[in-house]
Structure formats: C-alpha cells, structure tokens
Amino acid sequence: MGFNKTRLLRVLLALFFIFTLNFLIPRMMPGDPLVFLMGEDVVLDPGAMDELRVEMGLDQPLWRQYIRYWGRIVTLDFGYSYHYNQKVSALILSRIPWTLGLMLPVILLGGILGMVTGTLSGWKGDSRLNRGFTTLNLVIYSTPPYFLALACLYVFSVRLELFPLKGFMDSGTLPDILHHYFLPVLVLTAFFASRNFLLMRGSVRQEKKKWYVLRARSMGIHGPRLVFGHVFVNAALPMVTMIALDFGFLFSGALLVEIVFSMNGMGILIYEAVLSRDYPLLQGIFLVITLMVVLANLAAEICYHRLDPRLRIQ
Amino acid sequence: MLVALWAGCARPTENPLPKNRLKIGTVHRVKSRNILFDKALGVFINLSHPHLFALDPDGEIRGLLSDDYRVSEDFTRWTFRVRDHYFWSDGLPVTASDVTFSVKYVGRHVPSRRWMERSLVRTEVLDPKTAVLVFDQPRTNMDIEFTSFPIIPRHVWENIPRPRFYSENRQFIGCGPFIIAGMDLNAGVIRLRKNSYWKGPRPALEEVEIHMYHNLDVLSLALERGDIDTCYKYADTYPYTSAQRLAETGRFTIKKTRTTGLTFIGFNLKRAPGNQLGFRRAVARALDYREIQKLITSGYGDPPGAGFVPRGMPYFLELEKPTRDPGEAERLLEACGYRDSDGDGIRENADGKPLKLVLLSTTRHHRMSELVAEYLGGVGVEVELRIVESATWVAMKDEYDYHLTITRTTPWGMRMHAGYGTGYFDARRTGEGVLHTVSDPAFLGICDSLLAVRDPKKKKSLARALQQYYARNLPAVALVQRVIVTPTNVRFTGWYHDPLFGIFNLQNFLTVRPAHGIQ
Amino acid sequence: MNPLLRIRELTVGFEGPRGKNTVLDGVSLDMNPGEVVVLTGETGCGKSVLARTLIGLPGDHARVQGSIRFKGRELTTLGESRFSRIRGRSMAMILQNPQLALNPVLPVGRQLVEPLRRHTGMDRHAAGKRVREGLKKMGFERGEEIFHRYPFQLSGGMLQRILIISAMILKPELLIADEPARALDDSLRNSVHRWLAESRDRWNAAVLLITHDLDLAAKLASRVAVMVAGQLVEINTATGFLTGPLHPYSQSLVRSYFNLPWEGPADALSPLSRSATGCRYISRCDRKTPRCLEKKPEMIPCGKGAKVRCHHCPME
Amino acid sequence: MKAQKRKTRGAFLMLAWLLVAVFAGMIAPHDPSRRFEPYSPPGSRHLLGTNDMGYDILSELIMGTRISLLVGLATAAVATLVGLAAGLAAGYSGRFLDEILTGLIDVFLMIPRIPMLILLSAFMQPGALTLSILLGLLWWPPIARIVRSATLQEKKAAFVESAVCLGFSRPRILLGEILPNIMPVVKAKFLMTFASAMIAEASISFLGLGNPLLRSWGRMLYTAFNKGGLIHGMYWWILPPGFCIAAVVVTVMATGMALEETGRSPKREVLRP
After folding, report:
1. By the CB < 8 Å criterion, does B169 face chain A?
2. Out of B2-11, B182-191, B478-487, D253-262, which region has the weakest mean confidence (pLDDT)?
3. Closest by alpha carbon to B389, among A255, A21, A36?
4. Contacts of residue D2 in chain C, CB cutoff 8 Å?
5. Where is average pLDDT lowest: A296-310, C302-316, D221-235?
6. Considering only residues 78 to 117 of chain A, which have any Cβ-Cβ distance to chain B shorter than 8 Å?
7. Torsion sign over Cα C58, C64, C68, C72
8. For residue B174, which of B266, B68, B102 has the smallest C-alpha distance?
9. How many whole angstroms separate alpha carbon A210 and alpha carbon A203?
10. Are β-strands B130-135 and B120-127 bridged in parallel, bridged antiparallel, or unpaired?
11. Residue D229 burial (10 A CB sphere; 0-12, 13-18, 19+)
12. Do C16 and D271 lie within an 8 Å CB cutoff?
C-alpha cells in the first residue's frame, strides 16, 4: 500500500511531538488553571486551593504529570474537566454530532459544488460570465468567513428576521434544527466551494493542455464525456488530498463561524477551553483533532492510491 | 440543502407566547448541570434554592428561608430558624438539618466555601426548624455570608460522594417558587417552572426561561426583536449605548440601579512610584472623571467619591470628590522628585531615569486603560499599556508585576472580608480578583476591628474611619461608580432589584407580572 | 473528381503576449483517396499545427482563416458537436507522443472502446470484442491482458500500436499521422509503416504522414509536401521530389538524404524570417536575387504535377 | 497572455496599498488618537463617522492598513525564509537531512493552525512582530513542501547535473542554479501566505485575542461588534474594515494566482501552441 516503515515511524514521531506540545504549551503559559474555578469576588482559603491542586494532580512535578498524561492518552481517558464538571470524553462526544452536522454537509456540498463549477469554468474559454464567476469566487474566498457570517446574520436574521439569531436549535424538531443550520451551512459552503472552485479551475486549465485530451478529442470525444470522463478524473486527483484534509480539520474548521452563530459545537469548546485554561479539556480536544488529522492524512493517501492507478499498481 | 431552504422559508410557527412566560437572556455561560459547582448556574438557582437571607434594595439584611437569627455575645454561636412554609419540590419540608447538612457538605466539597467547614466547630439541631452553627472564632458577618450560601436538601445530597461530577436531575430539587424543569446546554436554554409545593405568595409567572448568548450584541438584537424580555448579567450592566436605542423603541422600560461596583486604579504599593502618596494623589488629580463618565459609561456612571466606598453602601461618608487638576498633579509630581529635566515631555526620577510605568489591565478595561494612559501622559508620566486576558492578569497581579492596574469591584466583593472593599486590599488575603496590596497596620487594624464588631454604632465609626483612610492614603483611585441598566419589555411589570443579584433575586420573580392591556 | 480534402489558403495564427503570431501562412493542398502524402520540414515549421487544424483542434486562441473542405464539407466553420462526429470516424489522427497521449488514469481498453461506442452506437461487449480483435491483429498476443492495463504499464511501442489501432479501427477515410514512428525502434517503425500502407490499400484511405524520414517518403508516399516557416514551398510527386527537388530547401534535404556533400552557403542554420514580404528562405538561400527580397513568391506550377514557392523554378 | 496583464495590474494595486500604508499618517484626515463626539454618523467632517471613543473611523481605517499589511508581509517573509531554507536543504541534500526535515514538515502540517494560534495569542498577547513570527512559524510547511519538490525536480534537470560535473560548489548550485528556477513558485507562495496571514490576523483580532493595542482591521471589526456597531446598524463602521481585508486579500491572491500561471515551468507533457 505504499506505507513503508520509515513512513510509519515518521507518523508516530509526529504524534509524539504534537502530543508533547499539547502537554507543554498550556503549562508554559502564565496563569494558574485553578483561578477560574473560584470566582472573581471570592476571598480564598489557600488550603482549599492546595486541596484542589492535589485533586487535579497539578501539585506533581511536571515530569510526573507528563507520564500520567501519556498514560491517559494510551487509555484514551482524558480525565475530568473542572469547568464543565464532567468527563472530557463525554463532553467532547456530546459536542461532536453538532459540529459534524454542520461540517459534513459543508465539506461534501462545498466539494461537489466547487469541483463541478471549477471544472466547467476551467474548461470553458474566457467569457465575461466565466470571468465574473471566477472573480466572485475569489472574493468569497478572500473574505474572512466570519465577516461573511456576520453579514449574513445581520441581513437575514436581524433585518429580514428570516432565521434565528443563535444556536443549533430551539425546539429540537428537524425543521427547527435545519432552520438554525441553514445560514452557517450556507456561509461555510460558499467558502469551501470557492476554494475548491479556484483550485479545480487551475487544475483543469493545466490538465486541458495535455496530450491525452487532444487525443480524446481527435477521436470524437467531446462535451461532458470529455470534461468529466477524462479531464475531471485527472484534475480532481490533487483535490482528493485537499478534501481529505478538510475532514482532518473538521472540528476546528468552523470555529469562528460557530462563534458568530453562537453554536455550541467543538469550535466554541476549543475557544472556551483556551480562555479558561482547562488543561484536561484542551488536551482532549487537541488529541482528538490530531488523531483526526493523522487519520485524514492516511485516508488521503489511501484514496490517492486507490484513485491513481500509477500509485495503486506499483 | 433544499430541505433547509424550505425550512428557512417556512419558519416554524412558534406557539403564541404565553403571557406569563418570562424569557431572560444572559451572556453567562452555564457549562454544566451542576448547581454547586457551576458559577453561572449558582446565580440562576436563586429561584429554586433560596438563601437564608437576602439584601433589600437599601442594602439591609432581610430574612428569606430563615426569618430569624440570634448571635451569641462572642459571635461564635449562630442560631437560625427556618420558615415553616418552605417545602422541597419533592414534597418534604425544609428542616434545620438541611441547613446544618448544607453548611458541612458544601463547605467540604466546594473549594471557595472551604473556610466555612474549617471554621465550624459543631452544628446542633434544636428542633426541626432551628439550627445552630458554632464557629472557632468570632464571626460577625455570617448573615451576609448566608445571602449567597446555597441550602440544599439533605435527603438528596447525602448519598452523593463526589458532587462535582454529579449531573442527575435530582439535584434540581429545590424549595423556591421555581425549579429547574429542563436544561439543554447545547441549545443554551434553561427552563424553570413553578414548584407545586411552594406555599408562599403565588407568582404571576408560570414559567421562566433563561437563554444563553455568546455575546452582548446578539443578545441586544434578540431583545429588540422580542426573542427575550430582559437580560441579566451578574454585577454588570446592559450596554449603555444599546439601552438608549431600546428606550427609543418605546417597547422597553429602562431601569437604572446604582451598584456598589466600581472601576478603579490599583497601585502597586510595594514599589516606586506607587508607594509614594504624592504620586498616588497626582494620579488622582490627573484624571478626567467627566470624560470617563461620558465615554466609558455613556453618561450613566456616577463620579465616585474620595472615600472609595461607593454611595449606596451602608455608612457611606460623603467626602470631597476628586477633580481634575493637571496643574496640581504636576506640582505633586515635582514634589515627589519627578521632573522633566531633559525636556522630552517625560519626567525623570532622581536618578534621571524616565518615569515609565506599566499599566496592567484586562481586555474588559481596554478603553479605560487607553484613557488613563493618555491622562497620565498629559502630566509627563509615560504609561506602557499591558492588556492581557484575565488568567494572565491574575498571575501578574499576584506577582506584583505592574505599577498601576485597572480592575473592578463587584457588589459581593465590596461586602466580603471586613466589607467596604477591604477584601480587595488586605495583603493577608488571596483570590481571583483581589489585589492584596495594603499591609499598613493602620488599615489592617481597622479591618480586624470591623470583623470583630456588630454593634451598628461602632461599625459606623469604623466604616467612616476606613473611608477616611482610603481618602487620605489612596491605595486605589476609583474611576467610576457603575450604574446597572436593565431594559425590560413593557409586557412585564413589577420589577424588583436587589443590590447583590440585580433582578435575579427570588423576590423579583414573585412580583413580576404581565402588564395589563399590553400584548 | 472532387478531392477528398481540399485545403485553400489556410492561415492559422495565435494570439500571444507580443501580438499575433502567424504559424501557417496560405497553405493549399489537395488530397485524394488512396494516396499517401508525406509532409516534411524543419521542427517548428508548423507541420503539427497543420495536422491539428485539419482535425479542428488547432488549440486555444487560434485564428483560422481560409478553407478546408473534407468530402465537400467546409470544416473551418463547422460546429464542435458536428465536427466531433467526423473526428475518429471519417478522419483520425495518430499523435507523436504515445506515452502522453492516453489518459493516465483509465485502462487502455476503455479508452479504445469509448470512441467506438460513440461513433457506432455499439454496446460495451460488442465494442470490447472488436477492440480485442484489433489488438490481436496488431500483434498483441495477450489482448485481454492489455485491455485492462493502464498506459504507464505499457512501453512506448505498445502504446503507439494501441493508438494506431484506435485511429484505424473505424477505417477513416483520412488518416493524419504526426510522426507516428518517432518513439519506436526500427522493427516497429517498419510495421507502423506497413499498417499505414495497409489502410491505404484496404479501404483506400488518404494518409497525411508527417515525418522527417525521407526513406519513408521513398517507400510510401505518392506525393511529398515540404514546409518552410509556415508555408508550403514544394508539392511534388515522390519520385519527382527524390530525383529532382525543386526548392532550395528540398534540395538540401535530398542531398543530405543521399549523403551528398553540402553545397549551400555556410550560414545554413540561420533563423528563417516570417516576414510578410519577400521569400522566407532568403537567409539560407544560395540563389537569392534582389527580387526575392522584394516580392513574396507564390506557389507556381513547375514541372509535371509539381508546384514550388520560388522565383526560380529550375524547370524553366 | 492574459495572466501577464493580471500580474502587472496586481503588482500596481499592491503597490498602491503599500503606499497607503507607508503614507498613512499623511493621508489620514485626523490624528487617529484624537477624540471627537462619539458615535457620530458619517458627514463632511468625518467621512465614515466616529466610533465609541469618538475616534475618526476613516483615519483609524487608513492607519489600520499599516498593521494589517505589516503582519501579512512579515509573516510571509518569515514563512518564506524558513520554508525556502528547509525546502532547499531537504530537496538538495537528500537522505538523512531530508528525512528529518520532511518529518518536521509533516508534524507542522498536522498542527491545527487556528486553534494553536488562538492558544498562543490568548496567552502571549503578541504584538505585530511576535504575531508575524508566530504566524510565520505555523505557515512555513506548505512552502517548504513545494520548494522541496521543486528542488528535487530541478536537481534532476540536466543543467544542474552538468553544473555538478563542472565542479561548482553546493551553495553556488543551490543559489545560482536551483533558486532562480523555483523563484516563480516561491513568489506565488509568498503572496498566498501573505493573504492567508492577513485573514488569520483578522480572525484572531476579531476574537478579541492578541494585543488590543494593535489597531488592525480585524481589531476594528471586533470593536465595532462589541461596542454597539451591529445594534446601531453602523454599517459605515463595520463594512469598511471587512471590505478592506477582502480587497487586499483579493489583490494579493489574484496576483499570486497570475504568478502561478505564468511562472509554471513548461513541462514536456503540456501542449504548446
């Protein structure tokens, strides 16, 4: 399958390195993680702080905490979040479906839309429509997604009152959830589609100059058969990696948009964990993201090998 | 996509709003289903878990769950009586043993209440409604402490060994007029309904909903749009500029309440120049209090007095208000030995080093810090702003790594320790928001005396002495006394604010009612 | 009799960064069924562009003027969809880069079946069967295995044969072969030429063969056309060309073919101009006169069945 | 060709933005730290009105060009330098060093950039330069990867082989032969990083993280949304910084794309007219 020992070793080293970073970075930062557990206007009994520190294992020397941290990774037990007062794993699991519900349609729709329109735009020659559409995509891709999200929120939710102002749901019925999801999915899909469009367009414009296209055309292949049966399959190959990596950053990809639409997904969880110095939660989240990225990388490689006979057969 | 589009067009028609369901928006984030450990939820359970006492609008102690208490001469033995008409929402009556259990249980498990258990010598239950707490030292202000101490049902909690990670619905069993009926943290909604065992005055509301928002702007828009009826933030106000706009719509009543919360400059008294009184007085004269009031609080804030203790606190002493006088400030600085000898606009100290100070504050006070830096720059003090997020701020202030800092007090914070803001300055204390900078024996003496007296007369004279101490020694300069603005939809009337929790006090939810004739 | 292909004054230009760039200039040529025309000339003189223009694929930004009539039908104005029905069926092209001319991610068999189905409406099995037969005929012992292979698994020679099968399988009336043997060793080269000859003999196809190989011209060609700097400079019968080339350039080609000593001027490799006036070969020509600088030479009949673009027809 | 024209146009526009940034102090109609009446609507005195503190929004916007462009450019510079060094070293040296560097690139590519950036900027409150370095250190791997593969290609190309035969020293070959050939790719990547860094900076500032004294466009958006800009419908406060970010990013990206198109080394497998 093309994975040799060095490759595996490299992935393992990468994991080790990243997990160590996850451990070190929060601990290197100023500020006591206990601070936010107490409350702004509380005069503390120092003994209580120490007890809590012991309970959370923060009294131990760093190297012992580090060993325990690896123990937790191996057993996939991230411990408890003292801000959310529950198991980190349960917390993350409860958030995943919501973010998944947001990002899955986005990645799929954005992938299909972007790749199809990108192919057509790259194939067709220069026309005013084509140039206009390309510019539109460039503009969408260049606008920070949160700005786009805010603009949509303002226009459609505040001014026109067509959509709710915040959250994933009110009543929890399917139409209600879809109603909440519509704007964020729209904004993120536009963003992902525009990126895929631009990449695909460039790829197709390269691809269409190749000899095999000339040969196919000279044999009378034309229209959709040519564009999708020949050019697309080649131009889409590099996109596979791109989209697989999107899956890797599934949980952090919508962070800002989740914040704009006040959606309690993984993005907001990351943000709040950072701000409140919630070590166990931070570690849990980074671990999940890193695993996702590694898996997505492997998946990308496998897909690539599957799709490209040159790699598959060798 | 199409389905979503359809959903978008056909907005789910909401049930016509029941007239007596009150929706409150908040930017507090309830993060867990745990009433003892979640800070935000700890405020919201005021409706389901009445405290023993409450503050009335004048700041006086008033009975709530307990109607009466007695203290022994030496302030070590406190006796509380629980009112007869309180019942837990599973039907059992609230008893004295619930109170003693709560003090021990919460004291054991909740770190910020840990001192209570340590100080407790024993508890007694004299009769089903009378509880006695005996402390190891004189405790003069337990009545104030019990305006925020949760009382929980013994029969529910006694079998729960690790309450921090307890998330069952049984913990919602309370004895207030409303109890938590549902909580969806993903949707950000908490629903409270009437407690059927509530025997007190009948509330006019059927349901109370708390909706959580991630930022104030969206909350304001929701308010304007009618998604929610009012908003709440502990010790904080609705944004002033948005309030003006809401008032113009005519659909909202804007209530202004003075709080005992201040925004202030704290000096690092452990090093120069903060340890020089002349410098501190110079700072006080360099500030433009009127502009601060105009820009930071849109004209809503009150200019503070020199005695640090804000108007509205008991035994408030009217002292001369500090005023802007840059000339005087410069004179004071000269007198301290800070002169601009090289003419670059920045003063130097005796060694010829320029007076360059670090002003530490959090993003919350970013704008205020900019203003202060500018005022000080005007009198030749160069200020380097260091604006950090709160965790870093706490770490830096605990290491005294600043010259000046801007922070705030909360109503509860003004009352903690010996009261009158002493908790913020007493060098023997630690805590998230406190500066612990003053170790002057005179100050500590007043604190200890205040902690040891309950006699109103003595208390008054000590409180005044303290305010004069503040005014004379300026360990901090109050910048503005905040005013809390609460917009409420005109569909509801009968609001009742208390100085500690604002509208989120139990009494309020007994008096709020739908306004007649207004839909 | 109308010729199968009738090219008149074909001019092809490309829009480039520095303005228009004319690649073919006033090419006129007729081709009849059953004849092999060898087109030769220097690399970059426009031979491939001519081939691609004939099949309607001159490339992006190309401007085509003049007329191409194929079986009486004007091709320069034919729509893409109609043209695509001619390509691969009545007219086919064999490209010079077999390694790159097949889609790298599709199996070879599928790429052969595809045009077959498109033009005949055969179902997959019938087309597959026909392709396998073709493969066998082309000397692939294990046709079935080749059918499922990908281009990168096959050698250049194999791929070239596959391309040839693909081009010839529908018996096109016009076959354009752009250096079909370039990538091949000698034995395969010969077989390629045999197949081209076969297509002429079996179904009377016209073959336009682009090559530098004058051997081939000698063996196969009915006529030879020579191109210099985008212009045809000589059209001659094969024997006429080999025995008495008319244009100075042709003469130099034939000389070197017969390993005769070089007689031209020393600056034989100087670049050729593409100016609108005067003769384009002038910088290398040993017969130039002032007239060659002033007046653009036209194609003039010169001897039997031959034309030359030179002011000095040696037959006169 | 068309891409050539787009490249020139893009270069001109970028130059214009840079000029705005350099001469911001002269262009801005008011001193951006001078206070006027807060929340004034646009008028002849203040073309875009004033904000919550009474600062002139147009002046703040013009001064913001500096920070936003500076962060973008500095980040791109850091990322390109690191990426170029790592990519050249990995691509040229082969074997051991290549293994290590490729591994490092892999590790960095797996780091979730935005969460990591939030983490770092929440704790460090970085100023413009620190932020650029942070961003640069997170953004270099894609450049290194491309440089590495381009170097590998160039290394194989005949002329470098011949340079090796002629006995040129390694640095000479790297800098003299390979570098000029991969420069178009690097330039395009530089611009893409520039654009990407600007968006990242705007995102961090929008979250209210990072140094609040850095009055960039992202920070303006943050202030606008947190000080009543949205509620009051003050589009003259909210839209301009957003549009400016988008406009600069579009310019930079379009130029980068044009560069990528013109700069691609013609490959054998591509038809040329």
Report:
1. no
2. B2-11
3. A36
4. none
5. C302-316
6. 80, 82-87, 94-95, 98, 105, 109
7. positive
8. B102
9. 11
10. antiparallel
11. buried
12. no
pLDDT single digits (tens) D149-168 = 888 887 776 566 666 666 66
Whole-number pLDDT of residue D19: 93
Ramachandran angles phi, psi of B316, nearest 5°: -60, 135
Pairing verdict, β C73-74 and C62-70: antiparallel
User: Are there at least 3 beta-carbon pairs closer than 8 Å between C and A?
Assistant: yes
Using CA coordinates, name the residue in chain C closest to A225: C114
d(CA C289, CA C293): 7
What average pLDDT does this structure show over D195-210?
90
Q: What is the ipTM of this complex?
A: 0.86
Mind listing the domains of chain A with CATH numbers? 2-75 (no CATH), 89-313 (1.10.3720.10)
Instruction: Say whether D273 and C62 touch across the interface (CB within 8 A).
Output: yes
Q: Is D8 on the interface with C (CB under 8 A)?
A: no
In this prediction, residues D217-221 reach a mean pLDDT of 92
Greater model confidence, A70 or C2 = A70
pLDDT at position A19, please?
A: 87
Q: Strands B404-408 and B356-362, how do they pair? A: parallel
Q: What is the mean pLDDT of residues D169-192?
A: 81
Residues of chain C contacting A217 with CB distance shorter than 8 Å: 57, 84, 87
Say how far apart CA B121 and CA B116 lie, in whole Å.
10
d(C-alpha C291, C-alpha A196), whole Å: 60
How many C-beta atoms surround the C-beta of residue C106 within 10 A?
Answer: 19
Residue C3, sorted as left (phi over 0), alpha (psi -120 to 50) or beta, turns out to be: beta
Residue B231: count of CB within 10 angstroms of its CB? 26
In chain D, which residues have their Cβ closer than 8 Å to the Cβ of A147? 202, 221, 242, 245-246
Least confident of A68-77, A111-120, C261-270, D85-94: C261-270
Tell me the pLDDT tens digit for each residue of A40-96: 777 777 788 888 888 888 888 999 999 999 988 888 888 899 899 999 999 999 999
Is the distance from CB of C157 to CB of C74 less than 8 angstroms? no
Under an 8 A CB cutoff, do D213 and B385 touch?
Answer: yes
Q: Are B446 and B416 a contacting pair, CB within 8 Å? A: no
Q: Which candidate from B32, B111, B218 shows the least CB-CB separation from A84?
A: B32
Secondary structure class of D50 (helix, strand, coil): strand
Token output for B305 = 């007095």
Distances (CA, A) of D40 to B129, B244, D58: 62, 15, 12
Task: Write the pLDDT tens digit of every residue in B494-512.
Answer: 999 988 899 999 999 999 9
